Amino acid sequence: MGIPRLQKVRTFAFGVQGEKNLPCNDKYIIVYDFSEAETDEAIKEFSTLLEDVKSVGLHTEVRAGYNQTLLVFVQAPRELLGNTVYRSRVKDWLYGITKQHPGGNRDTVVDGDFEAEDILSMYHLVNWRKELGGAGITPEFGKWKNVKSIFPLHNISANEDLLYHLSKKLLLSAEDLDRIRDLWGAKVAFYFAFLQTYFVFLIIPCVAGIFAWQFLPQYSLSFAFIIGFWCTVFLEYWKIQETDLSIRWKVRGVGGLKVNRPQFQYEKEFVDAAGRVQQFFPRWKQIARQSVVIPFVLLSLLLLGILIVVVFAIEIYISEAYEGPYKFYLEYLPTVLLAILLPYIGNTLEDIASTMTEFENHRTQDNYEMSLTQKIFVLNSITNYLPILLTAFVYVPFGDILVPQLQNNLHKTFGASIGKFDFKSDADRLRNEVIALTVTGQISNLGEELVFPYLKTRFREWWREHQAKNADADNLLEDDPSETKTLKRARKQALLSPYNVQDDISEMVIQFGYLALFSPVWPLIPIGFLINNWIELRSDFLKICIEHQRPTPVRGDGIGPWITSLEALTWLGSVSSAAIVHLFGQHHYAMGIMQTTMGKWCSLPLTIFVSEHIFLAFRAAVRFSLQKIGSRQIRKERNERYAERKKYLDELESSTTKSGHLDVVERERRKSVRMTSEDVFWTRQAEEGVSNEVGIGLIRAAKQKEEQGRGITKVD
Amino acid sequence: MGIPRLQKVRTFAFGVQGEKNLPCNDKYIIVYDFSEAETDEAIKEFSTLLEDVKSVGLHTEVRAGYNQTLLVFVQAPRELLGNTVYRSRVKDWLYGITKQHPGGNRDTVVDGDFEAEDILSMYHLVNWRKELGGAGITPEFGKWKNVKSIFPLHNISANEDLLYHLSKKLLLSAEDLDRIRDLWGAKVAFYFAFLQTYFVFLIIPCVAGIFAWQFLPQYSLSFAFIIGFWCTVFLEYWKIQETDLSIRWKVRGVGGLKVNRPQFQYEKEFVDAAGRVQQFFPRWKQIARQSVVIPFVLLSLLLLGILIVVVFAIEIYISEAYEGPYKFYLEYLPTVLLAILLPYIGNTLEDIASTMTEFENHRTQDNYEMSLTQKIFVLNSITNYLPILLTAFVYVPFGDILVPQLQNNLHKTFGASIGKFDFKSDADRLRNEVIALTVTGQISNLGEELVFPYLKTRFREWWREHQAKNADADNLLEDDPSETKTLKRARKQALLSPYNVQDDISEMVIQFGYLALFSPVWPLIPIGFLINNWIELRSDFLKICIEHQRPTPVRGDGIGPWITSLEALTWLGSVSSAAIVHLFGQHHYAMGIMQTTMGKWCSLPLTIFVSEHIFLAFRAAVRFSLQKIGSRQIRKERNERYAERKKYLDELESSTTKSGHLDVVERERRKSVRMTSEDVFWTRQAEEGVSNEVGIGLIRAAKQKEEQGRGITKVD
């Protein structure tokens, strides 16, 4: 892409090019929506809002937004922000995140090391409870239900620069990830780090896949093993990488210092041993509430499962066995059914999941987020993987039996209008389905993520401008000309949705699952993933820039419980891919029993058993070796600690004079003082060299005696 | 036991009662054996020995020992020992074991907090290489091959007191374990801590076992599950307990500061980034050497396996199918065979294991020890468990087929002298074998550990005194009367063998394995273990006191890799006990296919699969919950760190004055100075209350407009 074209893209994407921007690191925007409130109520709420914000020491500027909203621009004076950042660093030190006190005293004002540090403190000033020193504005909760969102302004020039920089590179370096962290905080940066590592590692399955596709038979066992081993090594490597990055970004263990959600219902407050005010909710109650998730998972598994099975059956029947009228239209029926029902049921289940997660009463926002995303991940897995699993383990093996039965039943029910014919299950269906899902799925994801919302945003803009031309000049939006661009940008950003990094991580994990679970089906899967992920990293970056509000730069020390999901997928993969190879592969070496279907199914548990244990043994071996090698940053940390403490020891080591012998004076002293019997023992040979003589004497005497003894016996 | 009798035991066991003992914390004994050296050679070696010892600053006294040995009593002056202990504490701080520098400077002299701390420093002074400040005396290595051992003196009164104290108590407390640590160091104390925890936890399987024996059917599935869950919970609890104790005893992470073994062959030395001299041996070479263990394990498995199978077959045949002459004598043949061959083969394999471990070139003594004990543990497992596994999975199921075949073969080979008769495999054999092995095995272990060596020691003593009476007065042992008792005690201790804690831990782990692997066979197994372990703890204590030299009080932060062995046994147990229940139990609910032997074996993999996964899921759940609860000591550590750092923060928090509004002066300043456009934005509503008014105005205007709009449409 030549430079001129890229510039055009930048203008197209980012709007105003090259204009001077407000510094973004000390500002926040509160979107107050008064469309659903009565005038007096709105005025009262609004006044309270400004009061709360001002009471923290923040400055405000109010402008109008679109659609009966007010944009409250909040700014922190230099001293307030600098002091808040400083206190945050002290808190880090208190909780052991950093090793050294940052110096200074309670009134110190510091500059943020990077923009996100300042913005995070701004967020705290706006969002934290009054007891913690914030203004207490939590959007859409409690008395602020009319506050639609709070967000920082995008740093457009920095965004542009970084995107441009990333687009030119093939691989990201640690410094590039640092720059992402500087903009959007550690939590978002970890997603990009994970995506980058995953992308680099994907080269191996690509190479292996090309090799397998070319030279190995279909459904190859060796390829399944390679992918299984690759998944394990990748995960273990990522864990070390995560630790390294968390130490580099000084966020290791940061989960321990997060404040409580305002939605957290506690039973009592108490002051703990270290003087901190803790809010207490009984652990057993929390566990009891969390165990509600188990029936929920089973229920949704059932519901989604039944839906997918039914649609699946309809689809099979219509596409392969049906010969009656309207076949052409009916072929689309299942897809339509799924397209209608699945999102509806999916959303209902997600709402139930939200309510349940709320019920679980998590203390911190991190925990809440994680619990919710894990539930949604389970739902997504079912939706994504169940069709393929059905194809692999129900349709292809048993289709020959089931579909004619289905045909018979329908024939009896619906009469002669449904024809009959011989049915042979299509063994290639599995491969075609996997290819379709992974390839087209990736492309449609990309479109859905990027293209569709972009068009939507642009359309809305166009509609708004169209409306504005036709209607009377909206005096609410009479802006001072010098502010127009700034306000336009802020208003646009106010309409965007907040960014949720968990959705993107979820997408990557689902993709990883395809590779882990179904790798033997089509070895070229990884190539599509590789290409997609290179684009994905940059397109996600672009997406955050233009389709979402700037994310609150919260900190995290990794991608969290997704590691467990990845491990679970790898484990399931060892079972699933072994089963696929077993059922579908050509086993030239297995004779007799394996050739019959019955034999195949009988020996399947054994194959799964063996494959799973090979995987577990390999995983234990990888963990053992990598644990010894360990994390480079951790070793560096330990060495630093040693080195800085060593200077104390140096003066010890330089002392070389050790007393070789009892000083003459000391010896005499010991002998002359009246001593107890123990001490007498220790003075008999106190003189130098006496021990030596005594010992030599004893040796000689003993040897002589021995020779005498031998001599006597010899004579005998 | 009344007090007078216990006193008698004390006298009997410990010999001299109530005599004043030499303080033991600053003395070490080197046993120099010159029986295999020529006189001149011996004299030269001995002189070098004394020279090396004296060069460190230690004092010596030489006395004769039994059987052409010299006992070199080594003592450290107060200043030397105190300074060495101090430097050891500084080293702990350097390596991050303790959090605070111990204060003082390079010449500081401290008292050991407990006796073992002093003795450990004595050991370092005698044993460490010259570069590290020691005398370099490593028994039976290099130039000191004639030094048979080095050991500290037993603190007999402390031993007596503690044993008496332990015998009166049912359960040990943390303070009791502290006292053991004070005597013998952390590594040995961890064994007692593990034994104690294991003992306490055994109450649960005992209760469950009585219940199962009384009310549940034989080979009960529920009981197998209970034991499986118990094993998991016990292990996870012990891990937390280990961490707690390691923090309490300030040995956490102590593995990182151990010095290199003198036997460690390194390729080069270099100075690392922190200024420490490191000895380097390529990692890949080390891993390559260690991988030799795999064929070794397979080979020994084969060898021992064949031996056990052959003997087993002979035993079955003779005891149940043989009807020919000499049956009475031949019945003992297998036992005799095993008793002869097994120790021989076992010792050969152990020697091979020793050589291999030496070849593996471990850097520290801990690593070497661990590698060796794990190999020997594998050998012991095979020897202990294989017979039972054979009975359970070969003999009982297939005996009906195999033994008559065996009978036929032997009949053809040996002619008509061997009779034939119908054979029915004895299903109770499994239970009888397990009972025999666990009950009698425990009792014989006890006897072997305690009674036999004690009798041996006493016999040798009697023999020596008998010889002394008959022979000429041995002028070598002409002792000064005031020293007689001390020397006699020291000479006796010099003849004892060193204590290896790994043997005792191994015994407990093997016992645990019986419970984990074969619990459904006889539910009352745990009761025997419970009783045995209470006695074992105290008898092992006694054993160390009277049958072994005082152990070098090395430090460790747990029982080491035995945790992995225990986890492996628990895992195997989930498979093995499920298989036993499946094959032997009465399955009233399973009809048809399960009743046939073929059916049983076909469905066995499925049962194992299910059982194993239930176990793994449960283990993951336990780890997850306990991880949240975590180690109490770790939490205490974190709270302490927080509290001690909090005083810095207190002065921050006490600052309550925050600026509520822009100072008037500040406001005017901001407006008057020439500003850029950004700043102008922020001054429009700088006056107090202006933002409020502007916002209210906007709200009213918007609401009015809305009503106008609605009003117009209504009219329409």
TrEMBL record, chains A, B:
One of its GO terms (cellular component) is membrane. The keyword Cytoplasm does not apply. GO terms for molecular function: chloride channel activity. It is found in: Membrane. It holds the Pfam family Anoctamin_N. Residues 180-640 form the Anoctamin transmembrane domain. Keywords: Membrane, Transmembrane, Transmembrane helix. Residues 26-147 form the Anoctamin alpha-beta plait domain. It is a multi-pass membrane protein. Its main location: membrane. The keyword Ubl conjugation does not apply. The chain crosses the membrane at residues 188-213, 219-238, 292-314, 326-346, 377-398. This is DUF590-domain-containing protein. It comes from Aaosphaeria arxii CBS 175.79.
